[in-house]
Design a protein that fits this description.
With 156 residues, the chain is α+β, with helices and mostly antiparallel strands. 24% of the residues lie in helices and 36% in strands. It is built from four helices and seven strands.
């Protein structure tokens, strides 16, 4: 049974939401509140496992400090181009020190980063300073405008 609470108004079922999140290699846009109450939005790589998102954050990341202070957050996984579709919701973040390096390695593999690349070597050089952030969705919903936009776009 899924851990996701998908709103009745969602364009997709629980199974369709999970399939989209499993297959998508888009980043998750995560919104949290800064120390002064101002919203902050960041894009992060994510894993989706057992109804929860996993991200890796370096110990110096401002968003990590904000999530420690207040774990309530909003998120969206969606592309930037038409036809528009995606998943959004609210979640509660928790931080795990011990899984940071493992989550980082899994993210590098999921997003197709070559092991011998400069990026992979740099990120792995800081593995001991990575934290795993788990996002437990409170609710999710999906929107899908593919059908309504089918004949709306001009060809290029």
């Amino acid at each position: 049974m899924s851990r996701l609470s998908v709103r009745r108004s969602s364009a997709w079922s629980v199974e369709e939401v999970e399939r989209f999140l499993d297959l998508s290699v888009l980043p998750i846009r995560l919104g949290c509140l800064g120390a002064d109450g101002t919203p902050l939005v960041v894009s992060l790589w994510y894993l989706f496992e057992d109804g929860r998102f996993w991200c890796a954050l370096h110990e110096s990341a401002a968003v990590l400090r904000h999530l420690r202070r207040d774990g309530r957050c909003g998120f969206e996984v969606a592309g930037d181009g038409a036809p528009y579709q995606g998943v959004r919701g609210q979640a509660v973040a928790s931080i795990e020190r011990t899984r940071g390096a493992d989550v980082l390695d899994a993210l590098l593999a999921r997003y197709g980063v070559r092991d011998d690349s400069k990026l992979a070597r740099w990120l792995r050089s800081r593995r001991s300073e990575e934290y795993a952030v788990a996002l437990d969705p409170v609710w999710v919903t999906a929107w899908d405008y593919r059908e309504r936009m089918r004949d709306a776009r001009t060809s290029s």
